[in-house]
Amino acid sequence: MELYHLRSFIAVANEGxxxxxAQQLYISQxxxxxxxxxxxxxxxxxxxxxxxxxxxxxxxxTVLKAQAEKSLNTINELFRQxxxxxxDLTGTAKIGLNIDPDLLKTAEFFSVMxxxxxxxxxxxxxxxxxxxxxxxRHGALDGGYMYGGIIAPxxxxxxCKLHNYNVMVVGPARWKEQIEAADWEGxxxxxxxxxxxxxxxxxxxxxxxxxxxxxPSKAVIADHEAAMRTLVISGVGLTLMREDEARPLEQEGKxxxxxxxxxxxxxxxxYLRARQEDPVIQAIxxxxxxxxxxxxxxx
Length: 299
Hints:
Elements: H1 3-15, H2 18-25, H3 29-43, E1 48-51, E2 54-57, H4 59-85, E3 91-97, H5 106-116, E4 120-126, H6 129-137, E5 143-148, E6 157-172, H7 176-181, H8 184-189, E7 191-195, H9 200-211, E8 217-222, H10 225-233, E9 239-242, H11 243-251, E10 255-272, H12 279-291
Parallel strand pairs: 3-4, 3-5, 7-8
Antiparallel strand pairs: 1-2, 5-10, 6-9, 6-10
C-alpha cells in the first residue's frame, strides 16, 4: 500500500468524483482511478459504488476512510517532523548525468536541493548509462540518470521513468536526397557511425535492425555523442540522434534527417535498491519528484 493510494482514496471520498479528486491532487484522472483499483484489490473490499452521478462510499469504504484519514495524519506528522530535521542532513550527493545537464533540469534540481538540504554537498558527474549502473553498484554514485526501456531491467537497481525522447536516423546534409528516399534496408546499406557496446543507442540501433533482419554497415565507432555528431556532420555516415538535438542541426543545414519513422528512448532516474531507505537517497528522490512533476514517488 502506498501513500498516494490513501491520498487518492480520501480525495475521491471527499469529492465524490474522480475528475474533481484528480484536480485536487494535481494528477490525471486515470492515475486516481488506478490508485483506487489497486487499493481495493489490496484490501479485498469494494470502497466505492460507481454511479452515473459519481463515486459513493460503500459501508466498508466509510469505515476504512476514517482509518485512512487517521493513518495519513500520522504519516503527515512524520513528514513534518522530517522536514524540521532535514536541515541537519549532511554528506555528499553524487549524481550521474548521462546527457546535457540542461535537459536533465540540473540547475532546478540543485536549487530545490540546496534550499531544502543546505548541508549536503552536491557532485554532478557526466557518465554514460552503463557507467551510471556500474558506479551505483560500486558506491561511486548515489543516483543517476540513464536511458531505460532498451537495457534489460537490473534487479538490484530501482529506476523510474521521467521522460520519453524521440530518436531519429540522421546523416550528412549532402546525402539528404538519398536518405529521404531510403527504407530501412536502404539505410542499412549506408556507412554508419556506430556506438560502443556499452551504449543505450547501440542497443536501440541493434534491436531496430535485428527486428528487420538487417545488418548495418559500420564505418567507425565512437563512444560519445559529441564525437558522433562531428563525424556525421563531416560526412562519415549515419547515426541515431535525439530529435531535440537533430532538429536545430537540420535547420542549420548541417545534417539530414530521415523522417519516415521515429524511434523512442526513455529517460530514467536510478539508484541502488539496497539503499532505498538511505536518508541521502530519500532526499535526492524528493528533489526528483518535485522537479519532474512525477505523479507517483520514484520507488
